[in-house]
Design brief:
Order of helices and strands: HEEEEEEEEE
Radius of gyration: 18 Å
Largest sheet: 4 strands, antiparallel
Number of helices: 1
Structural class: alpha+beta
Distance between the termini: 59 Å
Shape: elongated
């Protein structure tokens, strides 16, 4: 009985870590999509002047701002005469994600997981061989409650202006 109980607890802990890792990676991928959409916007306009690190709402992404992202919550980003659907960076990351077949902030059963994504344009520890203005760090943090304590998983990736 003790082994079965211990196995069930280990399964639950492992399951939560896998969910957290996937949610954190999704946060990184949504930030990457913002970069890709900005580059596509520049190509559509043919201007060579659309910043690769623009916020979909307009202007540059604020240094160190944290936000919630949801794979189902997109907004229209105007690129001259074109419109591109881009992840919404206006969501709060203080509320827990819900689950209705996918994790989101809109509907479903509240979960123990929450996700915050922080973007740091021109990181202080930037790669010296690449201009700082062509680098940004994306830090995706997922926290959850497990067995009376808060756990967290952090993924970090550096994105570059590859144009």
């Amino acid at each position: 009985v003790s082994l079965i109980t211990r196995g069930l607890v280990s399964f639950s802990v492992s399951k939560n870590k896998v969910i957290a890792a996937n949610l954190a990676q999704e946060g990184i991928e949504l930030a990457r999509l913002v970069r890709e959409n900005n580059i596509a916007c520049d190509l559509l306009n043919g201007s060579g002047e659309w910043p690769w690190n623009n916020d979909p709402e307009g202007g540059r992404i604020e240094r160190g701002r944290s936000f919630g992202v949801d794979a189902g919550d997109f907004q229209d980003m105007r690129c001259g005469s074109a419109v591109i659907r881009s992840p919404n960076l206006l969501l709060s990351c203080s509320s827990p994600l819900s689950f209705d077949g996918t994790y989101n902030y809109r509907s479903g059963t509240p979960t123990a997981f929450s996700r915050c994504v922080k973007i740091i344009p021109e990181p202080d520890d930037s790669d010296p061989d690449i201009p700082r203005r062509d680098q940004m760090d994306v830090i995706s943090t997922v926290t959850w409650l497990e067995r009376g304590g808060e756990k967290s998983l952090v993924l970090r990736e550096r994105l570059y202006n590859w144009r």
